[in-house]
Amino acid sequence: MPVGPGATAILSSLLTGLLLMKKITSVCPYCGAGCKLKLVVDNNKIIRAEAADGVTNQNQLCLKGYYGWDFLNDTQLLTPRLKQPMIRYQKGGAFTPVSWQEAIRYTASKLREIKEKHGPRAIMTTGSSRGTGNETNYVMQSSPARC
């Protein structure tokens, strides 16, 4: 272990860096369990995930929770779409930034096309324990038929 003024400067720098990092409480994106976690952010980049005390995970995470967050820093695909809805109008085409109203309108029109062509049973939705309650699950299971 180094000692002296140089060591003090190094430790001071490390501690300052640790204090500037933000911890953002979130929910693991992988399964429907809804494990609570903290994303450690440095310089607007996620650098690691830590377990948080949630009802389902009780301060524990699986391997995907601990190590599977790196895709969140993907600036080519995911990150821009987290900030604004984007639509790919043609297969293989580029994503186009759109308003929320346009994203909802476009999605609804595509769902209507699928329903007209293949029937309401061609549309599937999924729910999870992270929903806002039983009412959300009811709406989710009944809405495809109403498109």
From TrEMBL:
One of its GO terms (cellular component) is membrane. One of its GO terms (biological process) is respiratory electron transport chain. Residues 125-147 have a biased composition (Polar residues). Pfam families: Molybdop_Fe4S4 (PF04879), Molybdopterin (PF00384). The keyword 4Fe-4S applies. GO terms for molecular function: 4 iron, 4 sulfur cluster binding; metal ion binding; NADH dehydrogenase activity. It comes from the Bacteria. The keyword DNA-binding does not apply. Residues 21-76 form the 4Fe-4S Mo/W bis-MGD-type domain. Residues 122-147 are annotated as: Disordered. Keywords: 4Fe-4S, Iron, Iron-sulfur, Metal-binding, Oxidoreductase. This is 4Fe-4S Mo/W bis-MGD-type domain-containing protein. It comes from Klebsiella pneumoniae. The lineage of its organism: Bacteria, Pseudomonadati, Pseudomonadota, Gammaproteobacteria, Enterobacterales.
